[in-house]
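ZP: hey, is the nicotinamide-adenine-dinucleotide complex queued? I don't see it on the tracker
AM: it wasn't, my bad. submitting now with these inputs:
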Amino acid sequence: MSQKIASPKGKLGILMPGMGAVSTTFMAGVHAIRKGLGAPIGSLTQLGAIRLGKRTDNRSPKISDFVPLAGLDQLVFGGWDIFEDNAYESAMNASVLEPTLLAKIKPQLQKIKPMPAVFDKRYVRLIDGPNVKSKGNLMDKAEALMDDIKTFRKANACDRLVMIWTGSTEVFHKPAKVHQTMESFEQALVANDPNIAPSQVYAYAALMSGVPFANGAPNLTHDVPALLNLARDRELPVCGKDFKTGQTLMKTLIAPGLKARMLGCSGWFSTNILGNRDGEVLEDPGSFKSKEETKLSVLDTILQPQLYPMLYKDLYHAVRINYYPPRGDAKEGWDNIDIFGWLGYPMQIKIDFLCRDSILAAPIVLDLVLFLDLAQRAGMKGIQEWLSFYFKAPMTAPGLYAEHDIFIQLMKLKNTLRWMRGEDLITHLGLEYYD
Ligand SMILES: NC(=O)c1ccc[n+]([C@@H]2O[C@H](COP(=O)([O-])OP(=O)(O)OC[C@H]3O[C@@H](n4cnc5c(N)ncnc54)[C@H](O)[C@@H]3O)[C@@H](O)[C@H]2O)c1
């Protein structure tokens, strides 16, 4: 039986706290694609197909024809930032996209002006800006964000909204008592409790306004009982954390392959140079710690040293990020992987990935907002584990380990879409072909 899914009619508003490199590359990209100036490469919702039924059925529609997704021409954009630059100026600063391309969509981008942010320097220590909400306590600021959301919805005649955190990485932060219940969380907002991070104020404002929320950074944000319960109570889908791009994408492509062939791994050293604002923020050990946690968790979960101690028990895994301004957004990531095979004989793999961070992240933002909107229209609420495919540190139900293997994640995503439409799930058993 297929799930009831409301039609994606009308405008879908995309709200982004943080209008930096990722966010502006995404918005500019959508405008450029609409004008026929480029193609949505890297986006599963725009390019991917899905096999249905048996292999002999020859049914592989495009995902966008199979499930009802909002179209690119239905999207409108808004955001908040501590800097006053509009989306055109910010995209020029980020220097990800060519000025000649940005010039062609300048009028559309110039109209996207950041609303004043909720900011706390204790959570992002290496940058500061003037465009902030300064009045009142955190509850007043949350209410101001809810007003912003309401005004945006009305001004743009949006049918539905989705919020996605594309702001800087906040310092590492553990769940505290104030994050446990809605009551303690709201009291903490009124009391300006230092345990509440700005990203949590945005997540609260979104959920209170009936808006699904995704987190593209590794911050704790809505991964706490109070906000997860709020999402369930309000019947809103949420997901996170930390877009899986660059080096971690490579890790989740290679590590499952090594494990599949029962090859051992004794060391994996990853280092990066990048020179964008994200790199600057990650110079702060507090913000880097948030990133390190999500980057390190990946290998352990994929390789399962508890099941395969001979192969992975002694794995030495280190991740370094170095701020190096000359490279801007064009990051370079090196991996040295020490592996071993038959009789323990050692081998090495070297990867030098000259990637473009925001070029890899923009299609992820697009897919996430379209799929979250789909989940909302299909009545799905709480953590959307089927969207793990896009994250370095997928959120899961308490007590459940996260699935990091990208191929299992993709199967889960596609099976969820099949389930939504009442199609058979694909198990790959395939015995019937040999009967
Ligand atoms: N680019 C990637 O491939 C990638 C991958 C995974 C995660 N991320 C994460 O995505 C986020 C965005 O990355 P980016 O490259 O666009 O960074 P960026 O520094 O270019 O943009 C982040 C923006 O957020 C703003 N900001 C910070 N705190 C804010 C607040 N409280 N409210 C509103 N705005 C705020 C900053 O002023 C900045 O303009 C970062 O947390 C990054 O770690 C990026």
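AM: back. The pocket of nicotinamide-adenine-dinucleotide is lined by residues 17-23, 80-83, 94, 117-119, 124, 127, 129, 166-169, 198, 216-217, 242-243, 245-246, 276-278, 281, 357-358, 360-361 (CB under 6 Å).
ZP: great, adding it to the tracker
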